[in-house]
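stage 2 :: seqdesign
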């Protein structure tokens, strides 16, 4: 994540993760699963949105994915153990909605800032690192590969919301 201002677009987020060696791109990660025919890929979702207008924030992407029923919660994916323990499982959409009552959210930075005040996460990178420290995953790609190996991923929703799958590991 950027030191000043976390991120503004999904592209910046992916670029940062590539820099620190977490994943190369989410597209590559999803493409690996696509080769075994399990999901359609987030790229297709993004492409659909681009036909009607450019995606400028992760909020727009997640709003679109929620509309078509692909995901429910980013937080559960990023930190399932902590979310389960403290009972603070929400969705990024719910976080966005809460902030919209006091002002519009235009970037993931604002959402992450809100979650930081709630003690949830600071940055996506830190969230992935936190999961690494508790021995869950080392990268998002490894998380996807792990779920793929045990045959639990059938949809992008399951990929992004592995809370129940974590309980099976």
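stage 2 :: out
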């Amino acid at each position: 994540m950027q030191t000043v201002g976390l991120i503004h677009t999904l592209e910046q987020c992916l670029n940062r993760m590539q820099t620190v060696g977490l994943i190369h791109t989410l597209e590559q990660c999803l493409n690996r699963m696509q080769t075994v025919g399990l999901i359609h890929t987030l790229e297709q979702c993004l492409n659909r949105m681009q036909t009607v207008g450019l995606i400028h924030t992760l909020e727009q992407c997640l709003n679109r994915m929620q509309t078509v029923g692909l995901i429910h919660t980013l937080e559960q994916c990023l930190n399932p153990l902590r979310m389960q323990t403290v009972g603070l499982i929400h969705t990024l959409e719910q976080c966005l909605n809460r902030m919209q009552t006091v002002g519009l959210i235009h970037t993931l930075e604002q959402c992450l800032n809100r979650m930081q005040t709630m003690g949830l996460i600071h940055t996506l990178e830190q969230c992935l690192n936190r999961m690494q420290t508790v021995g869950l995953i080392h990268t998002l790609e490894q998380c996807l590969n792990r779920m793929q190996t045990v045959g639990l991923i059938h949809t992008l929703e399951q990929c992004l919301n592995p809370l129940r799958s974590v309980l099976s590991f």
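stage 3 :: structure notes
- The chain has a mean pLDDT of 40.
- Residues 10-19 form the longest helix (10 residues).
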